[in-house]
Amino acid sequence: MTDTPSNLRLAARDVPFPSSVSDAARASLERLVGADGVPVNARYVMPPPEDRAAWSRMKTAVDAQYGAAAREAAGALVSTVETITLGDTVVHVATPAGAVRADRAYIELHGGALVFGGGEACAVGARKQADLHGVPCYGVDYRTPPDHPYPAALDDCLVTYRHLLERHAPEHIIVGGRSAGGNLAAAMLLRARDEGLPMPAALVLLSPEVDLTESGDSFEVNRFVDVVLVGSLMSNNRLYADGADLSAPYLSPLFGDLAGFPPTFLQSGTRDLFLSNAVRMHRKLRKAGVHAELHVFEAMPHGGFGGHTPEDDELAAEVRAFVASQWG
User: Residue 62: which pLDDT band, with cuts at 50, 70 and 90?
Assistant: First the structure.
């Protein structure tokens, strides 16, 4: 009689680039892998959470890269943006060109592993959503570690939501977030409900980081298969949490009570490190009686194929159609 194994042991193997996606999507995967077959992003290692100086240096460097990419993407956008402050909270308000449904508002919460992605990248992200949905978009430039750990970012999201509730009916507000922004979007609704605020019309979660404990299956199965997000973000998570329990619902909304949530759109990809997050969140929403759609794209890594492929266009069309169907 043999002992029960505790792990599935795999021999070293090569994972081919898929032929089941568009040429553009395959090329985007190939660009992120070095000649040695190792993902380029595997070269970057996050500092330990206690090394705040190293995090400050990394944040400056990464935000500069995000900003450069945002400037390049901004050339195709037609919406305009202005920046407002609500106390300590900075919000980039993007207004689409042409006829505007000013009675509606979309809240966009950017990604960036809970540390990066603010500033210019956040403003451009708001413009993208304004262009996509044809309504004013509020990009929350939430405060981030190392200077502003939890709950500063969540506070900023709530400040923005309260600001919009003073000006819009809740059924005319939709909240969306990608990656870390998906964490904050779901956590914000948990806290808003706990504080007696009404729910918005809908929720959009794109590859959401809803489990900071990283307990899902795909955190192992898709490690290094996801060429964008190659491995654990636990150092980021602990830096953000600043000693708080990672399994607490406001930090990992997957573990919260999702009853009463609005209709929710979830997206991931078969190569996304966060695939389990989307799958488990979808099942939990369904069990709570919430209408939830899950869209999983073939071979898509975390965050999509870079925004310039048929698959990225298809995802944008699905999000746009869902949002259009949910306005009160």
Answer: very high
pLDDT score recorded for residue 1: 52
User: CA 44 to CA 328: how far, in whole Å?
Assistant: 44
Reported pTM: 0.96
Query: In one letter, which amino acid is 212?
Result: L
Residues 6+ apart with CB under 8 A from 146: 52, 55, 56, 59, 115, 239
Q: Which residue has the tokens 């956590």?
A: 187
- CA nearest to 86, candidates 139, 133, 131, 129: 139
Query: Domain 46-326 sits in which CATH superfamily?
Result: Alpha/Beta hydrolase fold, catalytic domain (3.40.50.1820)
CB 278 within 8 Å of CB 208: yes
Render 36-101 in DSSP notation, one character per residue: TSSBGGGG--PPPTT-HHHHHHHHHHHHHHHHHHHHHHHTT---EEEEEEETTEEEEEEE-SSS--
Q: What is the pLDDT of residue 2?
A: 60
Look at residues 271, 179, 267 and name the one whose alpha carbon lies nearest to residue 221. Answer: 271
Length of the chain equals 328
The mean pLDDT value for 165-175 works out to 97
C-alpha to C-alpha distance for 212 and 141, rounded to whole angstroms: 21
**Boundaries of every domain in the chain:** 46-326
The Cα–Cα gap between 98 and 40 comes to: 41
